[in-house]
Amino acid sequence: MKKFSIFTFDPFRLLGFSGFIALGISVLIDIFFGIQNPQTIVPFVEITTFGINFVSMSLSLMIIIWPKQKKYTLLVLLIESIYTMAIGYEFISLTLYGLFLIFLFTMDFYSQKLRLKGFVSLVIWILLLLTLIPFGWNRFFLCFGLSFFTFSSYLCIYWVLFQKLSIVPSDYQLHTVNFKLPKVGNILHIAQFPLSQRQIQCVYYLLNGFYTYKEISDLCCISVSVIKKEMLDIYKVFGVQNREMLYFLLSQYTVCYPDDIKQKPRD
């Protein structure tokens, strides 16, 4: 049995620790310099701020202890993004709410009912922006414009990372395969899968270094368009989306081919 330790590295544990430190610094600043937000809509702002920071610091400690419980991370980001907007720190709120949405994306929160959940997220943010009106319309419109830019930037970063990591098949994608794959490292008999001889030949060439469609088409003496169609059918069989994912999946096994497959290793 693996021994539990809060000193075992986990990126979420580091996130909780850094959040605890940041909130602690905020509390010290409030103690020594006071809270100067005369236009805030929050009643009893001094007491409320200490209460909110206490709750967030407690959640940060829970993240350190239980880093796998992502709900604590989401709670801290949501609470702090709402409260910092209400007391006039819109740029901090903008950053925190953007991170909150990114975490929801990575947890597949928007994989279903995207329009409804996206609409609710937008409404929440608009309501938060309205709390800036007591500070002046200029701050409201400035934060409104920056919101679109910031969230678009977050989305671009997420999209780039998603594309970079798309070579790794997710658990969901592997579960869509219509047959049971052997354990990693075992022999995989390619003839047992619903593939034609030409498709098996394409798989062989792909796994042996003939990576491009043009190279495979030259070896098979057929057009590139036919090879593309054959490869798309192969992707569907294995539940992957591209050559990289197929290569990554099958390279985990010792693939056994039928005797009639032309075996031509790359020089």
How many strands, what sense, and barrel or not for the largest sheet? 2 strands, parallel
Radius of gyration, rounded?
27 Å
Number of strands: 2
Global mean pLDDT:
79
Distance between the termini: 48 Å
Task: Give the tally of structural domains.
Answer: 2
Poorly predicted residue ranges? 170-176
Tell me the number of helical segments per DSSP (H or I, 4 or more residues long).
Answer: 11
Q: What structural class do the secondary elements suggest?
A: mainly alpha
Instruction: Give the SSE order as H and E letters.
Output: HHHHHHHEHHHHE
Strand fraction equals under 5%
Silhouette:
elongated
Q: What strand order characterises the main sheet?
A: 1-2
Overall helicity: 55-70%
State the main characteristics.
two-stranded parallel sheet, 2 strands, 267 residues, mainly alpha, 2 domains, Arc Repressor Mutant, subunit A, elongated
Would you write up a description of this structure?
The chain is an all-alpha fold. It folds into 2 domains: 11-164; 171-256, Orthogonal Bundle (Arc Repressor Mutant, subunit A), CATH 1.10.10. Helices cover 64% and strands 2% of the residues. The protein contains 11 helices and 2 strands; from the N terminus they run αααααααβααααβ. A two-stranded parallel ribbon has the order 1-2. Helix 1 runs antiparallel to helix 2, helix 2 (45-65) packs antiparallel against helix 3 (70-86) and helix 3 (70-86) packs antiparallel against helix 4. Mean pLDDT is 79; it is low at 170-176.
Which helices and strands occur, and which strands form pairs?
Elements: H1 11-33, H2 45-65, H3 70-86, H4 90-106, H5 114-130, H6 137-164, H7 171-175, E1 187-189, H8 197-207, H9 213-220, H10 224-238, H11 243-250, E2 254-256
